[in-house]
Amino acid sequence: GESVGLHLPTLSVQEGDNSIINCAYSNSASDYFIWYKQESGKGPQFIIDIRSNMDKRQGQRVTVLLNKTVKHLSLQIAATQPGDSAVYFCAENRKNSGGSNYKLTFGKGTLLTVNP
Amino acid sequence: DTEVTQTPKHLVMGMTNKKSLKCEQHMGHRAMYWYKQKAKKPPELMFVYSYEKLSINESVPSRFSPECPNSSLLNLHLHALQPEDSALYLCASSPHIVRGANTGELFFGEGSRLTVL
After folding, report:
1. Domains and CATH numbers, chain A
2. Best interface-test mutation with A: which of B108, B110, B112, B113 has the largest number of A CBs within 10 A?
3. Cα-Cα-Cα-Cα dihedral of A98, B72, B90, B13, to 10°?
4. What is the pLDDT of residue A87?
5. Contacts of residue A42 in chain B, CB cutoff 8 Å?
6. Which of B9, B21, B25, B56 to mutate to test the interface with A (most CBs of A within 10 A)?
7. What are the structural domains, with CATH classification, of chain B?
8. Strands B87-94 and B107-108
9. Which of A44, A49, A103 sits opposite B56 (nearest CB)?
10. pLDDT classification of A6: cutoffs 50, 70, 90
């Protein structure tokens, strides 16, 4: 299954399947991106990051892909497990409205549910 | 386990009360943040402190007053709040302020869930 992120905020997969969570960002000047996982009742937890001079980065069971041409970010989770059930947020680093500082801005999030 | 500690975990207050949320980190980070998160919404930045100085205020109403007494502590003083201020308040820290490509992850606490009656 695949989530369009902003328009389909939920993704349900079977345990063991691969998951793909998508995110569109708005600012072409954003140069750093992070994926966070937030379990119910907890704060966001870092998963993986990527800088704009890269198009792919791999971690343990996770891969982030960055397409700057279309301003699109995706998170791939291999062999999804029940413990992966959470809300996943992409976040982009961009200048604030005053233009003097950067701030980390979160996307709308996707709820991933893993069925055993 | 998170290394950013927030207290209290839950807080219920009336609109005339004065209360404070506290955040502590001992990772030597010099940037600290307050985010507000409503149910099923992403965290929204409120304030950023860099080296104990307020660096960003995202046009937050004055009924929220941040304070950074030292490099390990961050407070959020609350006064005359409204029911719509009920939310999860998240504190985060990073080694230095997020700036361009020279950045790193933010470490979040578990949040303080605030209910305003």
Report:
1. 2-95 (2.60.40.10)
2. B108
3. -110
4. 96
5. 110-111
6. B56
7. 4-105 (2.60.40.10)
8. antiparallel
9. A103
10. very low
